[in-house]
Amino acid sequence: MPQLLKRLAFQVGSVPNERTTTFTSISNDGHYISLRPLVNLNTTSEEEFPFEWVFAGLNSDVKLVPISEGVVEQDFNFWLDTNRYLNLPNTHRGEVQTTWTQWDSGSVAENGEVFPNGSASPGVPFFELWHPLDPNRVEQVLLNDPLTTAEASKARSIVFRVRSGQGYDGLVIVTGRWAQGFLSKENDATVDGLNFLRTVELEDGSREAIILYGSDAEKFPQEYLGYEAGGHVEVHGLEWDVIESN
Amino acid sequence: MPQLLKRLAFQVGSVPNERTTTFTSISNDGHYISLRPLVNLNTTSEEEFPFEWVFAGLNSDVKLVPISEGVVEQDFNFWLDTNRYLNLPNTHRGEVQTTWTQWDSGSVAENGEVFPNGSASPGVPFFELWHPLDPNRVEQVLLNDPLTTAEASKARSIVFRVRSGQGYDGLVIVTGRWAQGFLSKENDATVDGLNFLRTVELEDGSREAIILYGSDAEKFPQEYLGYEAGGHVEVHGLEWDVIESN
């Protein structure tokens, strides 16, 4: 089922916090994008790039291993990753191994370890707490019971990927009313090459752009009606393939 | 403003979790009730009493001290407290000192320490993470921005208290569509003397009882129209005073 996960807390070290409005979109087929914009900007570097992190991947970029009831190991190899793109120092490279534990409340706890100074140096454990939102709702409605979850599982799930050979990499995932996108210019490696999208379809059918970041953001597909897997669309000169549609 | 806080996480020791559907109702005038029903019951004692804890107090039972921007100290002396009522061993008695820290995400982190073995023994630090819900909504809608918060601040806030001399102690707090209540029989000190209420007013105006616990639960007021502070109502033989109404 398509999922729209909201992060409730993030912890490295002894004190948890949540400075972002982080949503992770997961399509029916398991493609994913995690968009983590900061709420308040405290430093010059945060003003220059107002995101904690953004990454995205195809379902081939994540490995799921069930461990026990309610516990799943998920090992990620991000396809698109702002840390890697910007070549930020002291950030992790390569596979990230994580364990996801379902709580009675419906939240899901993610525990993992990153190696910002390379795999030969000590790792840094982290904890993230997530809760599924109803992707068919404009507001942030917590999913809490099997009935509403069953309804939400029928949500729309559409994925666009930039066709190769155009000088861009990009992914847009639509889950229910919510769309998130990552578009980067190849070989730029600065914030100028990064573009992000977060929109929500309002009750009247119009779409509100909550995040439309970057000079190429107009190239994101922003209408999602009538697409079938195998189709494609050109948006302001950029060709996107529809790699999933339910 | 009236508040309906949902607990997102609870931590004692090194691992957080959330096994309950905990809501804390806070009235306009600062009266409060926190109802913490377990989602799944794992032990015989949980089946006998399916709550982690329930407590309630008047605004005179909590002391608020602003510490810095976004940080408030809150020291509680619960009026009604299931731990004390049941005389549970290894549970705290007396004032609980807590510090509440506002996060950028809109969540609020509560840190405190309890002394389950008395004030002469070492304390046990705890952490609870809360997020305000829109009390005017049937679903669990997270409040996230000043606009929706301003709207939610106009929610209904009504408080009923059992009139003294009837052999009962009790408080019902209505915030928006949500009502929570605590009613205990004096001098019983067993689970048989405890009653709890959680209802939500549906879109059609009817009320759904999510929790209606205890043999005296029919004595809770369950209709909330037309009450003014200073008024009263008799429900199945029990007199309640309206001590707040906006």
Order of helices and strands of chain A: EEEEHEEEEHEEEHEEEEEEE
Helix share bin of chain A: under 10%
Q: Figure out the total of helices of chain A.
A: 3
Determine the strand fraction of chain A and express it as a percent band: over 45%
Domain count of chain A: 2
Mean pLDDT across all amino acids of chain A: 96
Q: How would you name the CATH homologous superfamily of the largest domain in chain A? A: Protein HRI1, N-terminal domain
Largest sheet: number of strands, sense, barrel closure of chain A: 11 strands, antiparallel
Secondary structure: number of strands of chain A? 18
Task: Give the largest chain-chain interface (CB within 8 Å).
Answer: A-B, 28 and 28 residues
The CATH class of the largest domain in chain A is: Mainly Beta
- Give me the secondary-structure category of chain A: mainly beta
Topology-level CATH name of the largest domain in chain A: Lipocalin
